[in-house]
Amino acid sequence: MTMTRSFRTLRSLVLLSPLVIASLRLSAQSPVVSPPVAQPPLRFEVASVRPHQSAGDEPSNRRVLPGGRFVATATTVRTLIRIAFGTDDNRMSGAPSWTDNETFDIDATTADHAEVTTPQQFQQLILSLLEDRFQLKFHREQKEGAVYWLELNKPGKPGPALKPSTPGSEPNMSTNSTGSRTVMKVTNMSMIDLAAALRRQAGRPVEDHTDLKGNFDFQIEWSPEETPDSADPSLFTVLKEQLGLKLQSAKGNLETLVIDEISHPSAN
């Protein structure tokens, strides 16, 4: 689910030969076509951000609605940061305690009600909201650390539950956990998407090294904490036996998000 936002055109004239001159004369008689202009990233034109008035044990909730509308209730700023950067708490530093303890209600709409069609657009919108209303400033740092490589358990042999997606099916990925069982259902997603989704489940970044092309469908269930009494196997076992995949420990470059500055939201 990606969208190309830039177009590159590189032309170089090294020798001005008669052939080049003739070509230039011909092109001068033809209409000039301007290159496509990259579209600016989506931004919220209107955004209401208010402290959440608790009336009990309301669930935290976030929804993207038609017409470019984003609605969040009882949501912490740390949650918004996680969404914007696709990162986890252990790869984030510098956020003050109130970003965990205080919750907010948000109702925002994109300029011209532009629809949000990709995860990348949604992340950019949340980042712009943090920068505009919470005065977020940040930088990134790189360091070496432990990662997993997502690989085929047996070369060229995917597992029985890993099915090629039906053409035209909608991309979707959901992960639900009851504490004793986690269910992941995937439709029309790539191995790169799966690797990104497994990061939170596996406890460290996951890089795709399967060389599997195309998109896939599957559903798997596992026990987050496998014990002798568990009805379901571990994530590692399910990946190997059902999807024909394995998580191989490796070293990789880890990016840490450092929060330099963040403030309570500006007035509406």
From TrEMBL:
Source organism superkingdom: Bacteria
Stretch forming the signal peptide: 1-28
Stored InterPro entries: DUF3738 (IPR017801)
Residue ranges, compositional bias (Polar residues): 166-180
KW Signal (keyword) present: yes
Keywords: Signal
NCBIfam families listed in its UniProt record: Soli_TIGR03435
Record's protein name: TIGR03435 family protein
Organism: Granulicella mallensis (strain ATCC BAA-1857 / DSM 23137 / MP5ACTX8)
